Amino acid sequence: DVKVTQSSRYLVKRTGEKVFLECVQDMDHENMFWYRQDPGLGLRLIYFSYDVKMKEKGDIPEGYSVSREKKERFSLILESASTNQTSMYLCASSTYVWGASNQPQHFGDGTRLSIL
Amino acid sequence: GQQVMQIPQYQHVQEGEDFTTYCNSSTTLSNIQWYKQRPGGHPVFLIQLVKSGEVKKQKRLTFQFGEAKKNSSLHITATQTTDVGTYFCAGHNAGGTSYGKLTFGQGTILTVHP
């Protein structure tokens, strides 16, 4: 079974801090994703990565950056945390199959981040 | 950019009643996926539809993909309390890259009264 592990379930940080959210998957998946989930807005894609050191902006990348130095690990960085970044953050991974349509995404349990 | 709209936002039903959630995309999709998120949990993949007009069933759940590949629906027959949760559709843009990027709908929160 695919396991996507997020480093923290709950996190409280202060405005202006640099915040790191870590995600590790154990299935050798090529694709990894960071979403934020807010009530009434669904899941919005922040960044995704399709290979080591490769990344693409999603729909709401402002205020965030990412790092993928190893295939199994995808980090989300809040450069200078602000209160409007208080949210649930979900990491996901999926494999890539040449010539096939999208593969299912497997999600971690999420990190509920509060910025005070 | 691509938008995926999902309605209704909330649905309250009595146990045994049917439930349907609808998903509409602003662009043609190459495929659509459906996920379920239980309260306090994370989204879990249910199914993927690829072909125009495709219909798939999973026990009491029926999934449809529109002929134009711009809309989809999930229908649950005779809901049970175990169906409680948020149902999301997620589409891949037909003209987009092939890196597994999905655009999620806002989700429909289903509550079932016993």
What does this structure look like?
The complex is a heterodimer of chains A (116) and B (114). Chain A is mainly β. Helices cover 0% and strands 55% of the residues of chain A. Chain A contains no helices and 11 strands. In chain A, a hairpin with a 3-residue loop joins strand 4 (31-38) and strand 5. Chain A is globular. Chain B has no helices and 11 strands. In chain B, strands 2, 4, 5, 9, 10 and 11 form a 6-stranded mixed sheet that branches. Chain B has a 5-stranded antiparallel sheet with strand order 1-3-8-7-6, with no helix packed on it. The mean pLDDT of chain B is 93.
Briefly summarize what is shown:
With 116 residues, chain A is an all-beta fold. Chain A has no helices and eleven strands.
| Run of helices and strands of chain A | EEEEEEEEEEE
Low-confidence stretches of chain A: none
Q: Nearest-angstrom radius of gyration of chain B?
A: 14 Å
Question: Portion of residues in helices of chain B?
Answer: under 10%
Number of helical elements of chain B: 0
Please write the string of helix (H) and strand (E) elements of chain B.
EEEEEEEEEEE
Structural class of chain B: mainly beta
Features:
heterodimer, A: 116 residues, mainly beta, seven-stranded mixed sheet, four-stranded antiparallel sheet, globular, B: 114 residues, six-stranded mixed sheet, five-stranded antiparallel sheet
